[in-house]
UniProtKB/TrEMBL annotation, chain A:
One of its GO terms (biological process) is DNA-templated transcription. Residues 1-268 form the DNA-directed RNA polymerase RpoA/D/Rpb3-type domain. Pfam families: RNA_pol_A_bac, RNA_pol_L. This is DNA-directed RNA polymerase RpoA/D/Rpb3-type domain-containing protein.
From TrEMBL, chain B:
One of its GO terms (biological process) is transcription elongation by RNA polymerase I. This is DNA-directed RNA polymerases I and III subunit RPAC2. Its main location: nucleus. It is found in: Nucleus. PROSITE patterns: RNA_POL_L_13KD.
Length: 270, 97
C-alpha cells in the first residue's frame, strides 16, 4: 500500500505540487496490504481498497520555519473529507455531500485496525519545509499495487542472496602457521585448538562469516593449504523489509507467488 | 501457445505471455535435473514485452507432459520450502525447551 492519489486543497509552499505528491507516495505505510483489494480504474474507491490520509500544516507569519515530518499524516478512517463539486443545483442540501471516496463503513470497525491505527511506518520522514505564511493541505489516497509498477509499492528495501562459503584446510596447519592464519582473516573465521603438548592447530570455526576476501590465501604457499569454495546448494538470503510486513512473511509470500505462477503455467498447458 | 510438429511431439517451443525469468529460470533448473530432457532453453524476445519462449526437447516423451511434470515438481519444492521455513521461524521464535 502506498499513496497513489494526492488531492491538494492548498499549497502555498515552495515545494511544487507534483514534488510534494511524489514525496508522499514514497512514504512507507504500516499496514498489511493483504487485507485490501486492488483498485482498478473502473472501481469506486471504498473502504476495501483505499486508505485516506490528511495533512494540514500551516506556518504562521512571525514564527520560525517548520519541517513537516511524516507523523503529521493523519489517518481518516471514514474516508475523504473533500467535497466534490456537483453542478446539480437541484440537489438536496440535506443529503450528505459527495466526497471523493465512497466508504460504506468506517475502517476503524475492521478488527485488525481497532487497536492498530494506520500510520506511516517511520514518523520522522521529512516531507516538506515551510517558511512563514506558507501552508499545505493535501489529502492523500493510498492504494494497493506491486513493485513492478512503481518501486513505492515494493515491501522490500533490498534483498540479496549468497551461497555458503566453504573453507577447507587441505593440510594440518599447526603452531606458528596456525597463528598466522588466524590473524590474517579479517572476520575471524579460524580458531586455534589446543592439541596438547603445546601444539596448536587451526580449525574453521565460522565459515558463515567468511566474506571470500581471499586474504587467507594471499602470500606464498597458502593456496596449497587453504581451499575456498562455495556450497552449491546452500543459500543465505538477506531480506530487508520497508516495514509493512516482517521479512519472514515476505519470503513466504514470494514463494507463494512462484507457486501461483507454476499453477498458471500448468493450467495453460492442460 | 505451443509450436511443435504433428508427427514428433517430443520437441516443442512454448510461448508464454505475461511471464518472465521468474518462472522460466526456475523451471530450467528442475528440467535440467530430469533425465528425460535432452535440451531446455528459454529466451525473452524483447524485454519490454512480457513474453517467454521455452524450447524443450526430450528423449521421446511428449514435451508438454515433461514441462507439466517439471512445473508440478517446482510447486512441490515451493511448498516444501515454505513448510520448512515456517517451522524454522517458529522454532526460532519459541526455542524448544
Amino acid at each position: 500500500m502506498a499513496i497513489e492519489k494526492v488531492l491538494i486543497a492548498n499549497n502555498t509552499s515552495i515545494i511544487q505540487d507534483e514534488v510534494l505528491a511524489h514525496r508522499l507516495g514514497l512514504v512507507p505505510i504500516r499496514v498489511d496490504p493483504r487485507l485490501f483489494d486492488y483498485l482498478s480504474e473502473n472501481d469506486q474507491p471504498n473502504e476495501k481498497n483505499t486508505i485516506v490520509f490528511k495533512l494540514h500544516v500551516q506556518c504562521k507569519r512571525g514564527s520560525p520555519r517548520i519541517t513537516v515530518k511524516s507523523d503529521a499524516l493523519k489517518w481518516l478512517p471514514n474516508g475523504s473529507e473533500l467535497v466534490k463539486e456537483t453542478r446539480n443545483a437541484a440537489s438536496d442540501s440535506s443529503s450528505k455531500p459527495e466526497t471523493y471516496t465512497y466508504f460504506g463503513c468506517s475502517q476503524e470497525t475492521i478488527p485488525e485496525f481497532v487497536k492498530n491505527p494506520i500510520i506511516p511506518k517511520y514518523p520522522d520522514i521529512i516531507i516538506a519545509k515551510l517558511g512563514p505564511g506558507q501552508e499545505i493541505e493535501p489529502e492523500a489516497h493510498a492504494a494497493k499495487g506491486i513493485g513492478k509498477t512503481h518501486a513505492k509499492w515494493s515491501p522490500v528495501a533490498t534483498a540479496w542472496y549468497r551461497m555458503l562459503p566453504e573453507v577447507v584446510l587441505l593440510e594440518d596447519i599447526e603452531d606458528d602457521l596456525a597463528e598466522e592464519l588466524k590473524s590474517k582473516c579479517p572476520v575471524n573465521v579460524f580458531d586455534i585448538e589446543d592439541l596438547g603438548k603445546g601444539r596448536r592447530r587451526a580449525t574453521v570455526a565460522r565459515p558463515r562469516a567468511c566474506t571470500l576476501c581471499r586474504e587467507c590465501i594471499r602470500g606464498d604457499d597458502w593456496e596449497k593449504r587453504v581451499a575456498l569454495h562455495r556450497v552449491k546448494d546452500h543459500f543465505i538470503f538477506t531480506i530487508e523489509s520497508t516495514g509493512a510486513l516482517p521479512p519472514e512473511v515476505l519470503f513466504t509470500e514470494a514463494v507463494k507467488i512462484l507457486e501461483d505462477e507454476c499453477e498458471r503455467v500448468i493450467t495453460e498447458l492442460s | 501457445m505451443e509450436h511443435g510438429s504433428f508427427t514428433d511431439n517430443s520437441a516443442a517451443t512454448f510461448s508464454l505471455t505475461d511471464e518472465d525469468h521468474t518462472i522460466a529460470n526456475a523451471v530450467r533448473f528442475t528440467l535440467n535435473q530430469d533425465p528425460r530432457v535432452t535440451f531446455y532453453g528459454y529466451s525473452i524476445p524483447h524485454p519490454s514485452e512480457a513474453r517467454v519462449n521455452i524450447r524443450v526437447q526430450t528423449t521421446g516423451d511428449p514435451a508438454r507432459e515433461v514441462l507439466k511434470d517439471a512445473c508440478q515438481n517446482l510447486m512441490l519444492m515451493c511448498r516444501h520450502v515454505r513448510c520448512t521455513f515456517d517451522k524454522a521461524v517458529e522454532d526460532l521464535k519459541q526455542p524448544m525447551l
